[in-house]
Amino acid sequence: MNIYSHISIPKTLVSSQTSKSSNLSQSQCIIKFNSGGFFNVLNRNGGEQKKLIFSDSKKWGSCGKLGFRVGFSAVDGFSSDNSDFIKKRKVVDHITLLKAKEGLSDEDEKDMLDHLYTSQYQMGGIIAISLGRLRNQNPDGYTHAVYMRFQGKEDLAKFYENTFYLGVLKDHVMPYSHELRYVDYEAEVEDDILPIFRKGQEFNYGLEFMLLISVVESAHGEPIEDALLEHANLARECPSLIVQFTQGSNFNLSSKEYSHAVVIRFRSSEAFEMFVGNSEYREMWTSKFAPIVQKTLAIDFTIDPVGTELM
Prior knowledge:
Residues 92-185, 207-301 form the Stress-response A/B barrel domain. Homodimer. Pfam families: Dabb. A hairpin with a 6-residue loop joins strand 2 and strand 3. The chain has helices at residues 106-118, 153-161, 163-173, 193-197, 222-236, 269-276, 279-289; strands spanning 3-8, 12-14, 21-23, 28-33, 38-42, 48-53, 70-71, 88-100, 126-133, 144-150, 177-190, 206-215, 242-249, 260-266, 293-303. The chain contains 7 helices and 15 strands. The model is unreliable at 1-62, 64-84 and 307-311 (pLDDT under 50). The protein has 2 domains: 3-71; 88-303, Alpha-Beta Plaits (2-Layer Sandwich), CATH 3.30.70.100.
């Protein structure tokens, strides 16, 4: 038996096979359910695609929303213009953790951060950057963090070998720090200039949250991927709190202390507190991450609009 329904679905569809995601447009579409657990999406231009409903599809969401949770096969990569899905693009996100020397003056800190920030204008490859002093102490003793985005792994490789950046580290970072740690991972973002380059009003302020994870050996593969998928689902359900999030597996061979990383730009520190304090987030962490995590590092810093004092 087929059941037809006209509904508007702005939900995110997440694949149980590929862990990739796409967003349904706000436009109305026709959903045809059948007894086999599948449904067909009839979009505006007449196309039809078969979807499989998850068994737990009756309730989905951490921000007081209900909706269908669905999986899809190889149908990624649609344009966001006049289609049912938003196209994604792969990027490479890079994290640098610093341990500043004790007694670092405000002037020396500004010199270090200014040179790190303005390096994007002196060399190619960096398409987004944020950095700052960590708000809270952490067990590993890191004091500052730098986030950068590159279009691909080749650009990241050139960045590590760039003589200008090596000079910045030598003259303006290492005199004030005694340890650096790097984490690199590949992620997907919406294929549009603002989310790719992290530009626009939404990215001018907020809080940058970084979660680094090391899992037990037996958890590599499906267990950690399933946990990250659940984490992503919760993040997608809270656009009023989150501007953008990315996550992935660390491929930096020289820094394997952490196997995975998550970066979330929250709209404010209050939004961050609301998200991590949510009961569904705590339940997700207890059930999905706690059994497989060996070590974690959760850090964050505030984002302020770039002023005229930067070099």
